[in-house]
Write a structure and sequence with these properties.
Radius of gyration: 25 Å
CATH architecture: Orthogonal Bundle
Strand order of the largest sheet: 1-2-8-5-3
CATH class: Mainly Alpha
Cofactor: heme
GO molecular function, one term: heme binding
Distance between the termini: 100 Å
Number of domains: 1
Structural class: alpha+beta
Family: Belongs to the cytochrome P450 family.
Shape: globular
Keywords: Heme, Iron, Membrane, Metal-binding, Monooxygenase, Oxidoreductase, Transmembrane, Transmembrane helix
InterPro entries: Cyt_P450, Cyt_P450_E_grp-I, Cyt_P450_sf, Cytochrome_P450_Monooxygen
CATH superfamily: Cytochrome P450
């Protein structure tokens, strides 16, 4: 009897093993082939074509091949205003646009993406109020350690709760309440540069990146944590390191399930995520809510009530802190760095004490023009959480929509005379996104930039350093790959 039992169990185990593998195979075949093909066919029947994808990897290998060819091609010299070529940074989209038009579909693995540069379709997306058009799921999957499930990545009831909580703290009246703090911290930056200029006998070749980052990180920390802002400032190097480790989406690495592999990069990401989480929770737990400024208090209070989704209260607090940090810190830094290079900064403001007329010109000709030409985010991304009708197109559930902003912003038919000539299509100027999920931090970002230039350019004249190497690079944001070096002279 004892000898017969194993003989009966073994065939059963083999049968179970086969059944499990068959189920897994069917599931993978459906996820990796049938569903993507079904979605692609629905779009093709509506006249939307695109490059044929490979099994499992989609168009990733083709994108890498085109990118490699573009990197080997010689680059032409650029002059102020320094150029940003979409054909260099996104050569695959340039090729596909020429072949299939401005609206086409491509695949990143099994994820189907609808590429959009048609202003009529952009308008439809902008006017859409449905929550069925939300943030892509890959933001939480690929960028989860950095963005979490905060305001930048959430959808539905969770997003509505977060927006209702955080948005009022970024209205212009609240931003104006921090003007004195902004002036104080820019003055610290000015004093640092004056010291370097004194050592350089009247001028200095300064890489300005770290100084601009110090200003924005200190400001955001002060707005969040009040008198305890120094502890918040300590988190920014870790956030920067985490951004660097996550700069390439895992789907573009060409290795399925890469983020689950025990690589050094993935281990560093998990370590930094835990350290940032622990530090933020320590700051919150060590001090009463009343010790912080209003924004931090509101986020802490909203974690106790309202829709949190699958997040714990602590995770909700940390994720929204990180999202406010990223939006108020890094995006502003990148835009300001590009603005320092823009010729009209020198033409309108350089070498003069700013008056009201110059400030008006600066807002019109510099800040908005820089945001047109050198926006930090290259795409507005959305996902159809259900089938969504946009104009004449029925977007199937699961499709990611990418609006390629640089093409819209650099279209000579739309911006014949730059931003000062007025855009022929209001929906083509979208530096802060579109629709109900537009970036809430635009008032803060523009105000930070205005204060920076108002004070800096009333003390210094700026010119481009011969050490500057112009190389726009898309990581998480479109930023100067080698930083920004300027010759700074005291006025």
């Amino acid at each position: 009897m004892e000898e017969v039992l194993p003989e009966r169990i073994f065939p059963s185990l083999v049968a179970l093993f086969i059944v499990v593998w068959v189920i897994l195979f069917i599931w993978l075949f459906n996820v990796l082939y049938l569903e993507p093909n079904k979605i692609r066919l629905k779009l093709q029947r509506q006249g939307i074509k695109g490059p044929p994808p490979a099994f499992v990897m989609g168009n990733i290998h083709e994108m890498k091949r085109i990118m490699s060819m573009a990197a080997d091609a010689p680059r032409s010299e650029t002059h102020l205003p320094l150029g940003f070529s979409t054909s260099t940074t996104f050569p695959y989209f340039t090729q596909w646009t020429k072949r299939y038009g401005g609206t086409f579909t491509f695949a990143l693995g099994n994820a189907q993406v609808l590429h959009v540069t048609d202003t009529k379709l952009v308008k439809e997306i902008n006017l859409s109020k449905t929550l069925d058009l939300g943030k892509p799921s890959y933001l939480q999957e690929d960028r989860g350690p950095l963005l979490g499930k905060g305001l930048i990545t959430s959808n539905g009831a969770v997003w509505l709760h977060q927006r209702k909580t955080i948005a009022p703290q970024l209205f212009m009246d609240k931003v104006k309440g921090n003007l004195n703090i902004m002036v104080e911290f820019v003055s610290d930056l000015v004093n640092s540069w004056l010291g370097l200029i004194e050592l350089g006998r009247g001028s200095a070749d300064i890489r300005v990146d770290d100084y601009i980052r110090s200003f924005t990180s200190t400001l955001i920390s002060k707005m969040m944590f009040g008198s305890h802002y120094s502890k918040g400032v300590e988190l920014f190097p870790k956030c920067r390191a985490l951004m660097k480790d996550l700069q390439t989406p895992t789907i573009l690495k060409g290795i399925p399930f890469f983020r689950y592999l025990p690589t050094k990069e993935n281990q560093d990401v998990r370590r930094l995520e835990k350290e940032i989480y622990a530090s933020l929770i320590d700051i919150v737990k060590e001090h009463p809510e009343t010790a912080f400024d209003k924004m931090a208090q509101i986020i802490i209070e909203s974690a106790k009530t309202g829709e949190l989704g699958t997040s714990t209260p602590d995770q909700y607090i940390v994720d929204n802190y990180k999202d406010v940090y990223l939006a108020g810190f890094e995006v502003t830094v990148v835009a300001t760095l590009w603005a320092c290079l823009y010729a009209e900064v020198l033409e309108v403001c350089g070498g003069h004490v700013l008056d009201t007329n110059m400030l008006g010109k600066m807002k019109l000709m510099v800040i908005q023009e820089v945001l047109r030409l050198y926006l930090g985010v290259a795409f507005v991304s959305r996902q159809a959480l259900k089938d969504v009708k946009l104009g004449d197109i029925l977007v199937p559930k699961g499709v990611n929509i990418w609006i390629w902003i640089p093409v819209l912003h650099q279209d000579p038919e739309l911006f014949a005379n730059g931003i000062s000539g007025a855009c022929k299509s209001p929906n083509a100027y979208i530096p802060f996104g579109i629709g109900t999920q537009m970036c809430l931090g635009q008032n803060l970002a523009i105000t930070e930039m205005k204060i920076l230039f108002t004070i800096i350019l009333s003390h210094f004249s700026l010119s481009l350093s011969p050490n500057y190497n112009h190389s726009p690079r898309l990581n998480l944001l479109l930023e100067p790959e080698y930083g920004v070096n300027l010759i700074i002279i005291k006025i």
